[in-house]
Amino acid sequence: MIERRLALSGTPITYAVARSKRRRTIGLRVTEDGLTVTLPSSLGLHHADHAVRDKEVWVLDRLEKMAARARPTLQGIEGEAIGWLGDELTLHVHRHTKARTRLEQTEGRIDVYVDAALSDEMAASSVRHALHRWRKREALALMTPKLEAYAGQLGTRPAKVAVREQKRRWGSCSEDGSIRMNARLVAFPEALIDYVCAHEACHLKVMDHSARFYALLDQIMPDHRVHQQALKDAVPAGAAF
User: Fold this and answer.
1) 139-233: which CATH topology?
2) Considering Cα of 54, then 58, then 63, then 66, what sign does the dihedral take?
3) Among 40, 95, 211, 237, which residue is least crowded by beta carbons within 10 Å?
């Protein structure tokens, strides 16, 4: 990607430019990583600047809202907030005499035990790795039965359920019936996790987002549109990791 800079109403911004051979129009997208402009391969970079200026009000509004949603990055240190089902667990770090890192989750807290011989930097890294493993493990245990239950209502079942940590996609379903879920979802309220599980379960029957797909989603989750919007607006609990 190419990085560009310009000023909108006196506000300096930096944005990324990507190129696509498939696109015929210019696309603008604002995510946690900032603004990205996708250009058809035939257009010059100045077209990206023109597109951003044309959408100035929208761009500044989206960037402001995204900044308001920003969360502190996980450090792996005492007292941090870890998102769990729309609430927060407090991280407590302990030093012990064993080399193996151990994690325990109890009501309102997560305790991680790390080797006392490690430096502060290495200890924090061990804590972060333990939390990533914990999140993937808990996400798989939480989401698998949900996916199976929604799929069961449609007379099918996933061939396989896997969990990954992804920035943009909450879930995906492949042609072979394998479903991949985003471990980051565990920071959101459970109703929103249910929505993503129901959505992906419907893809086991219909791979696109046609009227037939939404008819299935209406069948197993009549209020899915409410949850879809809530997921778009929601700020996950806890530190970002």
Assistant:
1) Zincin-like (3.30.2010)
2) negative
3) 211
Distance, in Å, from the CA atom of 140 to the CA atom of 152, rounded to the nearest integer, reads 18
Tokens of 19: 């190129």
Q: Which residues contact 9 (CB under 8 A, 6 or more apart)?
A: 56, 60
Kindly list the domain boundaries of the chain, sorted by start residue. Answer: 2-68, 81-137, 139-233
Return the closest-CA partner of residue 140 out of 157, 124, 160, 126.
160
pLDDT the model gives residue 147: 98
From first CA to last CA, the distance across the chain in angstroms is 23
Q: Which residue type sits at 82? A: I
- Cα separation, 172 vs 174, whole angstroms: 7
Select from 165, 189, 194 the least CA-distant residue to 74. Answer: 165
Per DSSP, helices labelled H in 46-161 are 46-54, 56-68, 120-153
pLDDT tens-digit profile of 192-215? 999 999 999 999 999 999 999 999
